[in-house]
Design goal:
Layout lengths: L1 E6 L14 E5 L1 H5 L2 H7 L12 E3 L1 H17 L4 H20 L2 E6 L1
Antiparallel strand pairs: 1-2, 1-4, 3-4
Length: 107
C-alpha cells in the first residue's frame, strides 16, 4: 500500500508515520491509474512513484493539485481514472486545509 499522511513542512521525515496524520492510501492497481501524474514528475526533483517513499512540502501540494486539474481537463478519462485522481486530489486538499505537506510510505 501507498499510505498518505499530512506532515508539517518544518518536521523532519519520520522513519515511521504518525497514524494520527493518516489520510488515505492507494493499492498498486489504483496508483497505476495516476500514470499521467507520475509521468509529469518523472525525471524532476520530485519522484512520485509507488515503490518509493515520497515527501512534498505545502507549496508542492498546491502545485500538484493544479497539475491534477490540468491533467483531468486535457482529455477524457474513464471513471476509474477520475476516481483515482479525485482520491489524490482529496488527499492533497486535506494537506492544504491543514497548511501541511504530504508524506507517503510504501509498504
Amino acid at each position: 500500500m501507498f499510505d498518505c499522511y499530512s506532515i508539517l513542512d518544518s518536521q523532519g521525515t519520520p522513519e515511521y508515520p504518525n497514524e494520527d496524520d493518516y489520510i488515505d492510501s492507494f493499492d498498486f492497481e489504483e496508483f497505476k491509474l495516476l500514470s499521467e501524474l507520475t509521468a509529469f514528475y518523472e525525471g524532476k526533483s520530485m519522484e512520485f512513484m509507488y515503490f518509493k517513499d515520497f515527501r512534498i512540502m505545502n507549496f508542492q501540494v498546491e502545485e500538484m493539485t493544479g497539475n491534477i486539474k490540468t491533467i483531468l481537463s486535457s482529455r477524457g478519462f474513464s471513471e476509474y481514472h477520475k476516481k483515482a485522481y479525485q482520491k489524490m486530489n482529496n488527499i492533497l486538499q486535506v494537506c492544504l486545509n491543514k497548511g501541511m505537506g504530504l508524506v507517503c510510505f510504501c509498504d
